[in-house]
Amino acid sequence: MAAAATPNSFLLQNPLRPSPKPLALRPNPRFSVSCAAVTSAPSTSPAAHAAAPGDRGIFNFAPGPATLPEPVLLKAQADLYNYRGSGMSIMEMSHRGKEFDSVIKKAESDLRLLLSIPDDFAVLFLQGGATTQFAAVPLNLCSSTSDPTDYLVTGSWGDKAFKEAQKFCKPNLIWSGKSEKYTKIPSFDEIPQNPDAKYLHICANETIHGVEFKDYPMPANKNSILIADMSSNFCSKPVDVSKFGVIYAGAQKNVGPSGVTIVIVRRDLIGSAQEITPVMLDYKTHADSASLYNTPPCFAIYMCGLVFEHLLEQGGLVEIEKKNAKKAGILYDTIDGSGGFYVCPVEKSVRSPMNVPFTLQKSELEKKFIEEASKEGMVQLKGHRSVGGMRASIYNAMPLAGVEKLIAFMKDFQARHP
């Protein structure tokens, strides 16, 4: 039996004759629509769904990938098709080309300006997420798998970093908040450190549990260094970079889309990686090649650059911190002023301004709270599966109006469920 003809086989057999129209383009004889019906029905074109600036209809409280600044998205929208008259999309460009070279150099320059990064620190744009740095840090900073290190664990991500480090060094768990469900940070004076530790590792802000370091511990060993995973509060406030040996952060919370991890590392710490270190985890590989050893996450780096510009236009991180403090302040005040209807379990002195976890006194209402909030245009409020309850992630790009709408909903919900 002969095979059924296809548009391609038809064309091969009859090269001078046009192929039949694809079936999807043929009119359906069972369907007929009048002009009046067409004009009154909602359009399915992308343009019809484009909301006016400032009105996408949704406030996204996701912990990451998270909401991005509207001006950044609109600028990227224009560059997506034709980047500054180049005839190419920003996503089509060679990472070796002059256009992208200027993109990555400006992104680094603006980040250095934002954080006042000293010249003796390298800035690397890497892949693999912050989780890959759980291995990269000990591989680059420890000379052997027997080198001692200290880990201060205030949440799930710090715990994951500690467990991963066990493969590449001898980590010492100097304190863990697990027994108290990660709701506090102790006084640093109470924590016994290993005087021989190569470094002290912390997670500056725990995304899941909403615990943030307000100041930073000093390693007991004068030759040791402080390492921080800053993924969920990176560029949310000024930081004295010189106090650290390495800062690393996944971009998808505050400074860009998922796909790029930013590492800020003191230059004298580069070049002594363990022999077992894979080439892509060796900081020297990327420092020597200006983050272009292989094809980097070009579009994500471009987006980060736009966000850095946007943060500078707002007055830098001093002003950003003020805005974040206001948003977090009114939300925590609402929780604390609810008479116990809403509860934040985190000790007040270490509450995160980025990730606000809370529960309902009547836990049976939590599912309803999340569903009703979603119908009102407030999405991704469900807490992490390991914690439950709710979590509002209110990163830099979350506008004050979004937090105010959430607060109004919370008060209304409480009034309807006495």
Automatic annotation (TrEMBL):
PROSITE patterns (alphabetical): AA_TRANSFER_CLASS_5
GO cellular component terms given for this protein: chloroplast stroma
InterPro entries attached to this UniProt entry: Aminotrans_V_dom, Aminotrans_V_PyrdxlP_BS, Pser_aminoTfrase, PyrdxlP-dep_Trfase, PyrdxlP-dep_Trfase_major, PyrdxlP-dep_Trfase_small
Residue ranges, compositional bias (Polar residues): 1-12
Reported cofactor(s): pyridoxal 5'-phosphate
Coiled-coil segments: none
Region (Disordered): 1-24
Keyword vocabulary terms for this entry: Amino-acid biosynthesis, Aminotransferase, Pyridoxal phosphate, Serine biosynthesis, Transferase
Entry GO MF terms: O-phospho-L-serine:2-oxoglutarate aminotransferase activity; pyridoxal phosphate binding
Pathway involvement of the protein, from the record: Amino-acid biosynthesis; L-serine biosynthesis; L-serine from 3-phospho-D-glycerate: step 2/3
EC numbers, comma separated: 2.6.1.52
Catalysed reaction, written as an equation: 4-(phosphooxy)-L-threonine + 2-oxoglutarate = (R)-3-hydroxy-2-oxo-4-phosphooxybutanoate + L-glutamate; O-phospho-L-serine + 2-oxoglutarate = 3-phosphooxypyruvate + L-glutamate
Keyword Methyltransferase assigned: no
GO biological process, one term: L-serine biosynthetic process
Residue ranges annotated for the Aminotransferase class V domain, each copy included: 58-406
Pfam families cross-referenced by the UniProt entry: Aminotran_5 (PF00266)
Domain of life according to the entry: Eukaryota
The keyword Iron-sulfur is annotated on this UniProt entry: no
Family annotation (NCBIfam families): PRK05355.1, serC_1
Family to which the UniProt record says this protein belongs: Belongs to the class-V pyridoxal-phosphate-dependent aminotransferase family. SerC subfamily.
Protein name, per record: Phosphoserine aminotransferase
Native organism: Cocos nucifera
